Amino acid sequence: MFYPYKKNIHYGLLSKIIKSYKEACVKYVRQKFNDYEFGWQRSFYDHIIRNEKSLQNIRDYINDNPIKWELDEYNRVIKL
């Protein structure tokens, strides 16, 4: 039997999980390293991985992201 309304049972669940994770990380970093400037970007981008090409693109993005941070306009590090 098909229940179309059941699709909405988990509506927003991923957002709640990500929010909780980010809050826990912020609390940990601020306490452990006394870094009260640490924070996360406001939102996140989720993507369904449908094939190997998609998976590889995401892996490349994650791998290259720290390298690109030095050039990012939102990088708050003061460059001397």
What is shown here, in short?
This protein has 80 residues and is mostly helical. It is built from two helices and no strands. The protein has one domain.
Topology, please?
Layout (H helix, E strand, L loop, with lengths): L12 H21 L18 H18 L11
Give me the number of helical elements.
2
Average pLDDT, rounded to a whole number, is 82
Q: How many distinct folded domains?
A: 1
- Give the H and E element order: HH
Shape: flat
Helix fraction by DSSP (H/I, runs of at least 4): 40-55%
Q: Quick one: how many beta strands?
A: 0
The largest sheet is: none
Distance between the termini: 65 Å
| β-sheet strand percentage | under 5%
What is the C-alpha radius of gyration, as a whole number of Å?
A: 18 Å
